[in-house]
Amino acid sequence: MEQILKVQGLTKIYGNGRKAIDNLSFSVRKGEILGFLGPNGAGKSTTINILSTLLNADEGKIVYFDSPNEKIKQIKKNLGIVPQELAIYEDMSAFKNVEFFASLYGVAKKELIENINMALESVGLLDRKDDLPSSFSGGMKRRLNIACAIAHNPKLIIFDEPTVGIDPQSRNHILDSILKLRDRGATVIYTTHYMEEVQAICDQVLIMDAGNILIEGPMNDVLSKFNQELKYEIMIAGSHSEAIFTEISNLSGIIEAKFENEILFISITDALELGTILVLLIDKGLTILDVRKKESSLEEIFLSLTGKDLRD
Amino acid sequence: MKTIMKQDFLNLFKNKPIMMYLVVYPPLLILVTGFVFQNLFDQNILSSYDYYGVTMLVFLTTATVIILPELMFGSHVKYANFRIIYSPVSREKMYLSKIIVAFIVPYILLSTYVLIFNYFGIVNYGGNQVLNLIFIEFFLLLFSITFGGAFCVLVKNEDLSTKVLNLVVNILAAISGVFFPIYILGKNIAKISEYSPISMVINTIYEVIYDNNFSSFIPTIVVLVGFSALFILLIHINYHPEKYGKE
């Protein structure tokens, strides 16, 4: 599959000698959505600024659209950037906003109207195209912010926290729009602090911190890597002694077992062990109210990789 | 560049305080000061309208320093301008468009007022030689616009720039004899005021209008052009809209 972006050994050192990013390498293939994650100060913004051609790297190489000798102007024509800020003119209609920004990319006049309508339609603003953004809700402005970045049909779209501070409806609409853009052939890099969004729409995930990649790969692979242990929560009722739980802890295949607030938390290596535990509990006269399988979410993986210390 | 210029024109026309300043202030300021201070002047030598017609025009031109910061980083346009940097349009075209628009609109409006006041004999802007004044006005305006832009890209804050620039212009105007003839404050103060660029322009204009003396004309223009070139260079080096994107 065509590689839309190939980053090799990217390094950026700031004036104070601090490496904002250190030997970063990753790639994105056509039609993929890459969740680009990291805590504040991880080097995400620096990377995004370099990918957007606003900043030069000190070392490393970026190949856009499988064309090693692509000119900057041509690269920019095929990039769509959705900035975190609402980069729109509030006193100009939604249509005029999209028209202005699309015109900067040299979209031919005969295609312009069609492209604008398609961009507005894909963010659900076609019926409000003649209205001023100053009359829009926060979510609608965010959607217009996206429309302004996609009307020139970019091959690669970078979303920088596009769902900050908006209502769930707009957020869902934005996520749906991104999936539709992918279906139409666009490739997406998506940065956010909302892990559930990444888990919902991204095929690939990259987590970085302190300028380095901590983990990278297909979403399912990353999730399964952190879910090799089987975790269950067993809700029980009835009188019981600590001895039962010591007995369970000593069973083969048990990695961890702890009991808190009438719930038994267990980590096991094989699902068959679950049956043994349940039989033991029933034999001891306990009532099992509920059994739930627990999987590590992307957020838990993120926190386990980057730590829980507060960041600036 | 045509697309960006069109947008910059729209942004300027939609900026009510600046348009009010450019459309309403010039006739108001010239007529009011001319009327209020007419008793201070001997109408047979130099009328208050002739004095304030020139000084207020110079003051209004100098005060256009705030236009370019507004077009570059005004709260209504800052983030939208920030997005343009992602497009294939060059950074040079971005700031040149804004300089051109910030220059053209005030130049047309102020020159129109000069021609009207001169034609109807309200202010003596040189009579048949009025084009000399409009010519020097061109370079003073270029100086003011580029000074405002250079200051703003150095300070990196439109709000602070506007406040400081307004203060600087008002102080310069006061010590240059814009609001009253500076010799009232004594010879020494008058001597110091000669070093002000505003004072230099005012004196040059008076020399051209009343003495048909062009000895300062070219030197004044050369100084204004030199500073304007320096300011444009500073803008070129420091204009990076992406740095103003995040606060």
Mean pLDDT of chain A: 88
CATH class category name of the largest domain in chain A: Alpha Beta
Largest beta-sheet characterization of chain B: none
| Number of structurally distinct domains of chain A | 2
Total domains of chain B: 1
Overall geometry of chain A: elongated
Multimerization state: heterodimer
Most extensive interface: A-B, 27 and 21 residues
**CATH architecture descriptor text of the largest domain in chain A:** 3-Layer(aba) Sandwich
Number of strands of chain B: 0
- Structural class by SSE content of chain B: mainly alpha
**Gyration radius over CA of chain B:** 19 Å
The secondary-structure element order of chain B is HHHHHHHHHHHH
Describe what this molecule looks like in 3D:
The complex is a heterodimer of chains A (312) and B (247). With 312 residues, chain A is an alpha/beta fold. Chain A has 2 domains: 3-225, P-loop containing nucleotide triphosphate hydrolases (Rossmann fold, 3-Layer(aba) Sandwich), CATH 3.40.50; 230-294, Alpha-Beta Plaits, CATH 3.30.70.100. Chain A is 35% helix and 29% strand. Chain A is built from 11 helices and 13 strands. In chain A, the strands form 3 sheets. Chain A has a 6-stranded mixed beta sheet with strand order 5-6-7-3-8-9. A 4-stranded antiparallel beta sheet of chain A has the order 11-12-10-13, covered by helices on one side. In chain A, strand 11 (254-260) and strand 12 (263-268) form a beta hairpin. In chain A, helix 3 (94-103) crosses helix 4 and helix 5 (138-150) packs parallel to helix 6 (168-183). The longest helix of chain A has 16 residues, at 168-183. The two termini of chain A are 39 Å apart. Chain B has one domain. The model of chain B has no long low-confidence stretch (mean pLDDT 89). Chain B has 12 helices and no strands. Chain B is mainly α. Chain B starts with a helix and ends in a 9-residue tail after the last helix. The longest helix of chain B is centred in the middle third of the chain and has 29 residues, at 91-119. Helices cover 72% and strands 0% of the residues of chain B. The A-B interface holds A 49, 52, 54, 73-74, 76-77, 79, 81, 83-92, 100-101, 103-106, 148-149 and B 3-4, 7, 10-11, 14, 76-77, 79-80, 82-89, 242, 245-246.
